[in-house]
Amino acid sequence: MLARDAWLELRGRAVFWFSAAVLVVALAMAAFPGLFTRLGPNEACDLSLSKHGPDDGALFGYDLQGCDYWSQVVHGTRASIVVGVAVTVFALLISIVLGLIGGYYGGLADAVISRVTDVFFGIPFVLGATVVLVAFPDHGIWAMTLVLVLLGWTTMTRIMRGQVIAVKEMDFVAAARMLGASDRRLMFRHILPNSIAPVIVVAMLNVGNVIAGEATLDYLGVGLQYPDVSWGLQLNIAQTFFADHPHLLVFPALFLTATVLSFLMLGDVVRDALDPRLR
Amino acid sequence: MRYAAQRLAQAVPVFFATTFLIYAMVFALPGDPILALAGDKPVPEQVLDVMRARYHLDEPLLVQYGLYMLGVFRGDLGETFTGQPVSELLQDRWAVTAQLAVTAWVFELVVGVGLGVLAGLRRGGIADTAVLAGTTFVIAVPVFVVGYTAQIVLGLNLGLFPTAGTEEGWPGSYLLPGMVLGSFGLAYVARLTRTSLVENLRADYIRTATAKGLTRRRVVGLHALRNSLIPVVTYLGVDFGNLMAGAVVTEGIFNLPGIGQQVFQSIQLQEGPVVVGVVTLLVMIFILANLAVDLLYGVLDPRIRRARA
Q1: In chain B, residues 87-126 whose CB comes closer than 8 Å to chain A
Q2: B231 in helix, strand or coil?
Q3: DSSP letters along B163-218, please?
Q4: What pLDDT digit, counting tens, does each position of A85-101 carry?
Q5: Looking at this predicted complex, what is its ipTM?
Q6: What distance, in Å, lies between the first and last C-alpha atoms of chain B?
Q7: Minimal CA–CA distance to B187: which of B139, B133, B117?
Q8: Chain B residues close to A230, C-beta within 8 Å
Q9: C or N: which end of chain B has fewer Cβ atoms within 10 Å?
Q10: Any chain A CB within 8 A of the CB of B283?
Q11: Per residue in B172-207, pLDDT tens?
C-alpha cells in the first residue's frame, strides 16, 4: 500500500522525472560510453591541442594531454557511478545486518555494535581515507570502494537500529511472535520491510555524497591515478589552469554536480512520498 | 547527573578504540620510516636499533600505543623522525585552523538557522522554494569546486576578498575560506531547521499557545523555535569536528598554513607521529563536541533526560 501511494505521489512530481532522466543518462554513460563517444579513454590525443577551448571540432575543447574533453568526461562517468552505487550497496547491507541484530536482540550484541559504530563514526573522513590510500599506492577503483565503505556504513546503521527498535515494539510483531514465528522470520518478514524505508532514503542521498567524496579524494591526489579517467582527476588537473582555461573546470564540475544533485533530489522526493506527515 | 556520567563512561572506551585504530592504521603503513630517513646511504645496524628503540618501533603495537598515549596526557605528542617536537610543529597551525573552523561554524549557525526559519515559517512560499533549491544545489557541488569558483570570481575578478594566505589576519583572510568551508553545513542546518520548524508548527502545543492568545512572535520564537532547534544543535555539535578535519581541502585552496595542510603533507611523507598526533587531537575534539551535544540535549528536552536516566 505504502509503495503504491508513494508511486502515485512520485508520478506527479516534475523533480522526480527530471532527476530520474539525468540518472538514466548517467547510468547509460557509465555502462556504455561507446554510445556517446567513438573514442576510448586517453585515445587519439594530440599534445599540440593541449587545453584548447571548445570549438567546431570539439564541443568541450581539449584537456591537458590534448585529448577530446567530451569523450574524457563521458569516460569519467563510470568511476563515479560504480563507486557511488557499490559503496552504498555494501554499506546498506552492513547496516541492515548490524541494525537488525543490534536493534532486535539488544543487550550485549547491541552494546558492542553501537560502540564499534561510534568508533568508526569518529574517524575524520578525508584524513582517515588518505591514511589508508597512501599506504596502498597501487589502489584501483575497488580499493577506493572498500575504504569508502569502511568509513561510510555508520550513519545508515544507526538509523536502521533506531528503526528496528521502534518497529519491534509494535503490535503486529507481538502478534506474529505469539503465533510462533521464529526470530529470523520476525526479523526478515515483519520488522525489515517495515523499518527499511528511511534507510533507503538515506542510501539514495548517500550515493550522491559518496560520489562527491570519491571526487574529493581524486582531487587531493590520493584517489584514482592516471591512466584511470574520473571527474575528480579532471578537476585536480583543472585547478592549475582554470583561471585561463575555464572549460577544464566547468565541464567535469557540471557533470559531477548534475549527477550528485539528481541522487539528492531523488532521495528528497522519495522521502516526501514515503512520509505522509510532510504532505 | 547519572545521565552525564553514563555518557562519559561510554565516550572513554570509544576514544581509546578510535585513536588506537588510527594509530594502527598509520604505523602499519608499509615501509620503514627510519630507513626512509636515511635516503640511499647504508645505515649501520646499531644506529637503526637506537632510532627504533627511541621511537619504540621495536615494541608490539599495543605497547607503542600505550606509551604514546601516556605521553599525550602529559602534553607530549612525540617527535617527528627528524627530532622536532610535534606539538611545536603544530602550535601556530592550530590557531589558523581553529579560526577557520570557528568562522565557518558561526556562518553556518547564523545564516543557516536564519534561512531555515525564513523558509519554515512560510512553507511552500517563494522564500521556501528558493532556500530548498539553493541548499540542494550547494550540497551537490563539491566543496573544492565551490572554493575555486569563489576564489576566482569573488577574490580575483571582483576583488571583494583576499585570494589566498593569511596576511590580513582574522577576519579578513578567513571570511571567504570560512564561507566555503561552511557552505555544506549551512545547507544542512537550513534544511534541518526548516523541516523541524514545519513539523513543530503543526503540533498541538502550538495550537494551544495560539489559542491562549499569545502573539505570533512569542509562539514561534519561544515555543516552536526552541523545540525545533534540538536536531540543529546535534548537527552543529557534530559538525564542528567535521569542520576542523574537513579544513584540508579549504586550506589547500586558499593556502592557509593550518593543520590540514600539515597533516596532508605528513601523510605523504610517512611522518607517522605528526599524523597520529593531529588525528588523535581531532578525535578528542570530535568526541568532546558529541558529548557536549548529548548533555545539552538533556537540558533542551527533559523527555530525553528522564527517559535515559
Answers
A1: none
A2: helix
A3: -SSSTT-TTHHHHHHHHHHHHHHHHHHHHHHHHHHHHHHTSHHHHHHHHTT--HHH
A4: 999 999 999 999 999 99
A5: 0.78
A6: 8
A7: B139
A8: none
A9: N
A10: yes
A11: 778 888 889 999 889 989 998 998 898 888 888 888
